[in-house]
Amino acid sequence: MTTTALFWVGLALIQRVSSTAVTCFDGYYITGRGGCSACPAGTYSGANAASCSSCPANTFSAGTAPRCTACPSGTVSNPGSASCTLQNTCSPGAYFDGRGCSACPVNTYSGPVATLCVACPDEQVSGVGSSSCHACASGTHYDSGACVIDAVTCSPGQFVNNNACYDCAANTHSMDGFSCVACPDAQVSDAGSSSCHACDSGTHYDSGSCVVDTPTCTPGQYPLNGECSSCAANTYSTDGTECIPCPSSEVSDPASSECHACADGTHYDADSATCIVDPPICPAGTYLNGDTCTLCAAGSYSGDGATQCEECPAGQFSWEGASACCSCCSGFYSDHPGASTCAHSGPTCPDVGGANPSSLNSQSTPRRRAVQCRFGQRSCPVYGISADGRGYIRGSECVDVRTDLESCGGCVADDPPLGARNADGGRDCSAIPHTGRVACRGGACVIESCASGFTPSEDGEACIASSASDALHRLLNFRSVMKFYIVVALALINAATASVVPVVRAGTDGMTAGVEELRREPGTGPDWRREPGTGPDWRREPGTGPDWRREPGTSPDWRREPGTSPDWRREPGTSPDWRREPGTGPDWRREAADV
Fold first, then answer.
1. I need a labelling partner for 251 at 20 to 30 A (CA). Which of 139, 223, 360, 445 fits?
2. How many other C-beta atoms can be found within 10 angstroms of the C-beta atom of residue 150?
3. Structural domain for 173, as ranges
4. pTM for this structure?
């Protein structure tokens, strides 16, 4: 090995030994050459540190520091600072200059903790240390960064602003035309006033204005603008202070002290808030149409108080103004609702009314004879009973329904109870109970006298008991006499009738008799009460009664005498009631010459 090589090997060994032996103190750090170097200000380090660390905020170090020192109270520092500075705690109107707080100069301003002041806006000024700027006061104007007194002169009631005149506000005044002053207590002024004044008589001061005194008003009135005014309709006032709306469904006139319900015959209308007249209660046969009653049309009917008419069902019909629908009579039908007439069903119809006259088509063709009735008479059906118990039309007979006692006013083929009127308008006058003498005049039953103990009713339609005990006595006596006459009549009819064979039954007294089927054959019935001119009851025979007061032409009761009565409803040929006049009515069903 050469001398040179040995030198370099030895030098390397010396450097290695030297580097492992270096030790650096706090505030120093080890350099790359194996030496120690001091940490600069604002940093610190521990022993044998490889590098220095920066001081955090609000701390500092002067250099070669093993640690950073906290800033004293009232001072602050940024990270890595070598010293602390004073803290900015300046108030509005001042700014921080690094050493402390200084006031803002004229025509500038600042907020809190400011580091500089801001110049005032145009035509505004501020004093030293101001936190805001302002315009020039009244009576002055802005000029070159300062407010100077205005040179203009304003009139009383005005003030100067920016070298111009303005009116003083309400409740202020100006006597010198320079500035406005508030009015004294309890005084007022209008805008632009040079003085203030107290409130006028009839008014009083209230919150900066004069208010009209409240007058004392009577019930039904209320105060308005210092005067009493009447309450409007449907309002009321009990004490004269205010108007109150009426309760629901009540009304009032103007200037009312109370409300009231609608009077009888009227009702409350919510739309108009008034009482309006009740609509009329229409009688049967009419309906309410607006505020009037109108007749029901033919084919319909109505009861009392109806607002509309109902259609007649199929099998029935009605005329105009009907209160009920009538069933179609035998041989006629209506197959749709609302019929005003019934159609003829043909000569083979055995049914009695109804919508379908062929419901008994299985029955054999009835025996009927054509009847041609004289003028003024009506062809009425005569019914029989078949072997199987069903009713059928045996024939017809001509009846003058204007005078016939048993079919008065219309055909009576059945036996209505107690002489009641049937749907055709017919009535069996002889069946009215307790009559003494009765007749059929003009198609209406006329009770001329009643049995003892009974008296005609007010409407002349029935006999009512005048004494209960007397009526009972007369009834028992009448039944005994009738039993005798029935037996005699049966014997007479049995001898005179060849077409019908009566079946006579002998009783224990040998005086009773009956018949199988005589009730429906005209002129053959044992019921003498139904055979005109054959009854033993002289009270029913015109011209034979002892009651002269009831004899036609002699009675003073003109209401019962044909041709003298003002009651046109009873006079044949004069009555407008066409339903009663044979040959004049539109009821073609009843005027049947070919039934």
1. 223
2. 19
3. 158-212
4. 0.27
